[in-house]
Amino acid sequence: MTDLQQPIAVIGATGQQGGGVVDALLARKQAVRALVRDADATRARALRARGVEVVAADQENGDSLRRALTGVAALFLMTTFEGADGVEGEVRRGVTVADAAAHAGVPHVVYSSVGGAERATGIPHFESKRRVERRLGEVVPVTFVRPTFFMENLEPQLAGGGGGELVLRLPLPGDVPLQMIGVRDIGAAAARLLIAPDAIDGDAVELAGDELTMDQVAERVASGLGRPARYEGLPVDVLGDDEDMRAMFRWFATVPAYRADFAVTRHLVPDVRDFAAWLSGRGPARRS
């Protein structure tokens, strides 16, 4: 069991997943230390107003990370491949954090990776997360949460104006089942594991709250929003020369792709939401 007298550190606290972890930890009255690049940024100030300790630390700077991670009970980490340096930058930052956590003596790390990371998918940003997983496993006690497709990825299409027919589009056939999870539930699962690392057997769990085809998603959207909706599958060619996204959507179409453990997800998050529940309760989305 984590020593709750010490704060739990969160990297990515101003984004989607990290923000969900902060919410879940604060709901448990757990002290939180947010590691952010700019401690004076608007979102950092908002965290401070909620009682979160905000500390400046850069994932590119091992010294700043070691200082910020000293004396914490656990660490939540997520990495992103977005940016000019892509997946290599993601790996570099993840390894820097892993080594800093080891140097600071962090007792336990929860890393949010991606469903399928361990299964040699060939998808560049899945493989980069696997490389971060390996480094973490070499240097610190770690648990991996591996989320499936984010329900929030559909938010931009659901926010279309007007009351006419809503058309959802992805480069995926409409009859292929896709496992998915809400960001709030990823945060809740990670928070549970930060506080109780032995809440699951083993060192990893693939998370999902629902499994639907996109045709079924459109049916639930129509019912939940009270407006006509349909799904239109697009060819993968709409992704142009983005080989990372092309590889991911080709993988989605090869069943089974994601292989979530629904029982363990529900064990960690008893009120985990299916898509209909997420749809009815969604609010303004955070940016990752």
TrEMBL record:
Classification via SUPFAM superfamilies: NAD(P)-binding Rossmann-fold domains
Record flagged with keyword Oxidoreductase: no
CDD domains cross-referenced by the UniProt entry: NmrA_like_SDR_a (cd05251)
Keywords: NADP
Claim: NADP is one of the keywords in the record: yes
Stretches assigned to the NmrA-like domain: 6-259
InterPro entries: NAD(P)-bd_dom_sf, NmrA-like, NmrA-like_oxidored
Family: Belongs to the NmrA-type oxidoreductase family.
Protein name, entry field: NmrA family NAD(P)-binding protein
Organism from which the protein derives: Streptosporangium longisporum
